[in-house]
Amino acid sequence: MRLYNIVTIIDRSREKFYAKICKEQEIPLSVTIMGSGTATRKHLDFYGLEPTEKAIIMSIVTEERRHALFDAAKERMFIDVPGNGVMAAVPLKSVGGGRTLAFLTNNALAEDGAPDLKDTYEMILVILNRGFTDDVMDAARGAGAKGGTVLHAKGTGASYAQKFLGVTLAEEKELILIAAQKEQRSAIMQAFLHHTGPESPAGAIAFSVPVTHITGIRNLNAE
Fold first, then answer.
1. Which long-range contacts does 162-166 make (Cβ < 8 Å, 24+ apart)?
2. CA–CA separation, 175 vs 146, rounded Å?
């Protein structure tokens, strides 16, 4: 039995409805974080949209519940239609403790070993100084990124981090989530690191995690 962290990004106005779906599907654990979209004014005007605040919900689910949650979100929230949200499944490699595992799987036994990752997509996470989101996203879009979601955060880090990276971690930060095709990941990361990397005022650093299933992004629908 595999476990996944389902990352769902939707308008805040739809958060309660999605929470109701999670409850009906008996999802054992979900955590909601508030953020905002990074769509340009040009794209918003083209589609007749207004800037919206986002809710990022992370839910830990089994393979069976992943299928059910994706299906319910498509059927009742049309999340597979671009503009209605994004859902991405990030496989979990391990869980801390037997009681936690039993809680997350309803006492079912998990399979041994790491998940078999046949991922076509990746979720890029970018940590940057607050106020430079547009600079990072402009560079990322130039390399093919469709968009992203920004979260406000505060950094912490070891004392040698500033000397090593050239950035100060213990200050106000922003975290950008960008879903991209696997073959685009390198170009996107190189683009914004070249223009807004650790040596720039943006001070951006980045990493990525595999995504096995995704829906809601134009030309990236896999479910």
1. 165/198, 165/203, 165/205, 166/198, 166/199, 166/203
2. 17
Token pair of 122 as six digits: 């990746």
Q: What is the pLDDT of residue 38?
A: 65
13, 56 Cβ separation under 8 angstroms = no
Residue 1 near residue 109 (C-beta atoms within 8 A): yes
Reading across the β-sheet that carries 172-181, which strands appear in turn? 205-211, 121-129, 172-181, 149-154, 29-37, 53-62, 3-11, 86-91, 213-215
Q: Is 39 helix (H, G, I), strand (E, B) or coil?
A: coil
Residues facing 33 on adjacent strands: 56
Contact (CB, 8 A) for 24 and 72:
yes
| Domains of the chain and CATH, by start | 3-116 (3.30.70.120), 121-211 (3.30.70.120)
Report the 3 state secondary structure along 146-208: CCCEEEEEECCCCCCHHHHHCCCCCCEEEEEEEEEEHHHHHHHHHHHHHHHCCCCCCCCEEEE
Extract the tokens encoding 177. Answer: 């989530």
Residue-wise pLDDT tens digits, 211-222:
988 888 754 444
Residues 108-160 pLDDT 10s = 655 544 445 556 788 999 988 888 988 999 999 899 888 888 888 766 554 54
As a whole number of angstroms, the distance between CA 92 and CA 3 comes to 6
Reduce the DSSP state of residue 78 to 3 states and report it. Answer: coil
Three-class secondary structure of residue 217 per DSSP: coil
